[in-house]
From TrEMBL:
InterPro entries: tRNA_Adeno_NH3ase_assoc_put (IPR023869). It comes from Tsukamurella pseudospumae. NCBIfam families: tRNA_deam_assoc (TIGR03941). It comes from the Bacteria. This is tRNA adenosine deaminase.
Length: 172
């Protein structure tokens, strides 16, 4: 089992990185090293190090601006980037698009605020856990929800909202 990351390591970090595991019917949320917010490969490595027999995926919430869901599996790692426009100004989002073989959007950084966000990647990434592609697509398209609120809805829908809340509370 991977070592648990101390919440104090997040003192100078905007956002959070967690791994979510489900063994039978029990959800657990593990705080990942803050370095996972800067590297898809680092996040993937930490998620794999948990070595669980059930479902496992990572959530990288970057500055409450966007998030990436990372789900390693036997046939490769599946990714979902909540906002492809984030790749215009953020390296982690750019890494996600590169892994997805999608080009960074050609948007003038000064016009980014007027551009509607769109997801890229595997919208069925959480389908086997109870959050289908259509529902996730509608959630990510909701202009009234910020990314952290979208993640809260995902956690509620799948049933790990209290575990996520406890980890986020530990960050202060």
């Amino acid at each position: 089992m991977a070592a648990q990351t101390s919440p104090e390591r997040y003192d100078d970090t905007d956002g959070y990185a967690v791994a979510v595991t489900r063994e039978e019917t029990t959800w657990t949320v593990h705080l990942l090293d803050p370095g996972a917010l800067g590297s898809i490969a680092k996040a993937e490595q930490e998620i794999k190090a948990l070595r669980v027999t059930g479902a496992v995926f990572g959530v990288l919430n970057v500055d409450d601006e966007y998030f990436v869901v990372v789900r390693p599996g036997p046939s490769g790692t599946r990714l979902l980037l909540s906002d492809a426009t984030a790749a215009v100004f953020d390296e982690l989002a750019e890494q996600a698009l590169e892994r997805l073989n999608v080009e960074v959007p050609d948007i003038d950084p000064e016009e980014i605020e007027e551009t509607d966000p769109w997801p890229e990647g595997d919208l069925a990434i959480l389908g086997d856990l109870g959050l289908g592609e259509q529902e996730l697509s509608v959630l990510l398209a909701d202009p009234d929800l910020y990314p952290d609120e979208q993640l809260q809805v995902i956690a509620e829908r799948l049933g790990f909202d209290s575990q996520l809340g406890a980890v986020l509370d530990s960050l202060g």
